[in-house]
């Protein structure tokens, strides 16, 4: 009986350590992905994305879109405080392993109005922008600073981590509601239904 308990404890400890190992790997790998985006190293960021995603949007096109977004002269954009909040237990579906994770970051964004913009036009632009951000991120997560005409946005997002073996080489896809048709091609329906 002593041997059985000892073996059971060892197996439980091994399972717990393994569970923590893959979760730590997911967290650190996703943090590397976020760091690449924060540092505008979009080519490197693509290495962390699900390769099948590039069958829908080619890699070079996605890098170009990100470069245009971050280097848009009409807008300054900075991501701060990226953080993985939690990693859920992985589940095996159709010979792949999937784990949900939640991350958060803050974004500082300043949109530049036209040079000849009137106060009324600025008020309209600001109201429309605030409404759009509030719909995307939640009203309480959007702060507007009138003196600098800038926004601070707190965003929390859900991500699917995907691995062929459940321990290494995790790839990621961010779950965006407006991209459901594309997500259905990349993520099992059973997993999408859980969120």
Protein model, in words:
By secondary structure, the chain is α+β, with helices and mostly antiparallel strands. Helices cover about 45% and strands about 30% of the residues. It is built from seven helices and six strands. Strands 1, 2, 3, 4, 5 and 6 form a six-stranded antiparallel beta sheet that branches. The longest helix is centred in the N-terminal third of the chain and has 37 residues, at about 1-40.
Give the SSE layout.
Layout (H helix, E strand, L loop, with lengths): L1 H37 L3 H5 L6 H4 L2 H12 L4 E13 L3 E3 L2 E16 L7 H19 L4 E4 L4 E14 L7 E4 L5 H7 L2 H5 L2
Antiparallel strand pairs: 1-3, 2-3, 3-5, 4-5, 5-6
Could you name the key traits of this structure?
single chain, 195 residues, alpha+beta, 6-stranded antiparallel beta sheet, 6 strands, elongated, disordered N terminus
Taking all residues together, what is the mean pLDDT? 85
Order of helices and strands: HHHHEEEHEEEHH
Major pleated sheet: 6 strands, antiparallel
The proportion of residues in beta strands is: 25-35%
> How many β-strand runs?
6
Secondary structure tally, helices: 7
| Spatial separation of the terminal alpha carbons | 44 Å
Q: Determine the structural class based on helices, strands and strand pairing.
A: alpha+beta
Extract low-pLDDT stretches: 1-19
Large-scale geometry? elongated
Radius of gyration, in Å, reads 21 Å
> What is the share of helical residues?
40-55%
């Amino acid at each position: 009986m002593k041997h059985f308990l000892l073996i059971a404890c060892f197996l439980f400890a091994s399972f717990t350590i393994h569970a923590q190992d893959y979760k730590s790997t997911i967290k650190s790998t996703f943090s590397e992905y976020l760091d690449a985006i924060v540092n505008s190293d979009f080519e490197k960021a693509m290495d962390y994305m699900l390769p099948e995603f590039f069958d829908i949007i080619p890699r070079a096109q996605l890098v170009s879109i990100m470069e245009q977004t971050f280097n848009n002269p009409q807008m300054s954009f900075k991501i701060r405080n990226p953080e993985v909040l939690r990693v859920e237990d992985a589940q095996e579906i159709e010979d792949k392993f999937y784990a949900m994770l939640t991350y958060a970051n803050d974004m500082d964004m300043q949109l530049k109005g036209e040079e000849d913009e009137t106060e009324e036009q600025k008020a309209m632009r600001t109201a429309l922008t605030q409404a759009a951000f509030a719909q995307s991120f939640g009203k309480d997560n959007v702060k507007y600073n009138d003196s600098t005409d800038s926004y601070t946005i707190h965003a929390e997002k859900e991500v699917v981590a995907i691995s062929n073996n459940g321990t290494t080489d995790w790839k990621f896809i961010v779950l965006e509601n407006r991209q459901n048709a594309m997500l259905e091609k990349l993520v099992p329906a059973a997993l999408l239904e859980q969120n």
